[in-house]
Design goal:
It holds the Pfam family SRR1. The chain is an alpha/beta fold. It folds into 2 domains: 31 residues, no CATH class; 130 residues, no CATH class. Helices cover 33% and strands 15% of the residues. The chain has 8 helices and 6 strands; from the N terminus they run βαββααβαααββαα. β1, α1 and β2 form a beta-alpha-beta unit. The longest helix is centred in the middle third of the chain and has 10 residues. It is globular. The relative contact order is 0.16.
Length: 163
């Protein structure tokens, strides 16, 4: 079991009441909107990111862009394969390049859907990044470490720091 104090949460839509309840439960709320740019800092970390925008996943990958860091990451969230299937490859590579680059280094298992929630949780998967698969990616994959900016992104699903 993970002690509640080791669980960090953030949602820019948390109300003051929700934040107070979460703190009362002993959970740690991150004080700032990191826009998904949260590093694992050497510890195995589970990110529960169901129904988040693609930019949040992309930012998380960028923040942990090394085989050592990514191999400590597990994401429960929207299917990366589904993202790949639904986006034109040029859009995926331009706007969400870290998702595009890591597709060959990720393992993904879809969570079973529930008949009652087919329209809500139909695309949720568990993702992890085995170190051996990441090390098989070409060295050039790890050279690009530019922070994602999303200037040309038409469907940006993220609440920015200044918003």
């Amino acid at each position: 079991q993970v002690p509640p104090g080791r669980c960090a949460l953030f949602d820019p839509a948390f109300s003051a009441r929700e934040a107070a309840v979460l703190r009362a439960l002993g959970l740690r709320l991150l004080p700032d909107n990191e826009e998904g740019k949260h590093g694992v800092e050497g510890s195995a970390t589970l990110f529960y990111m169901v129904h988040c925008g693609k930019a949040l996943y992309n930012n998380l990958l960028w923040s942990n862009w090394s085989p050592a860091a990514l191999s400590k990451l597990v994401i429960i969230g929207n299917s990366f394969r589904g993202i790949e299937e639904r986006l034109l490859s040029r859009i995926l590579e331009r706007d969400y390049s870290y998702i595009a680059k890591v597709l060959k280094g990720v393992e993904e298992v879809a969570l079973p859907s529930h008949p009652r929630y087919l329209d809500t949780f139909n695309d949720t998967s568990v993702h992890w990044f085995p170190l051996d698969k990441l090390q098989e990616l070409s060295p050039e994959v790890w050279d690009c470490v530019e922070e994602p900016m999303y200037q040309d992104c038409e469907d940006l699903e993220i609440i920015r720091k200044g918003d």
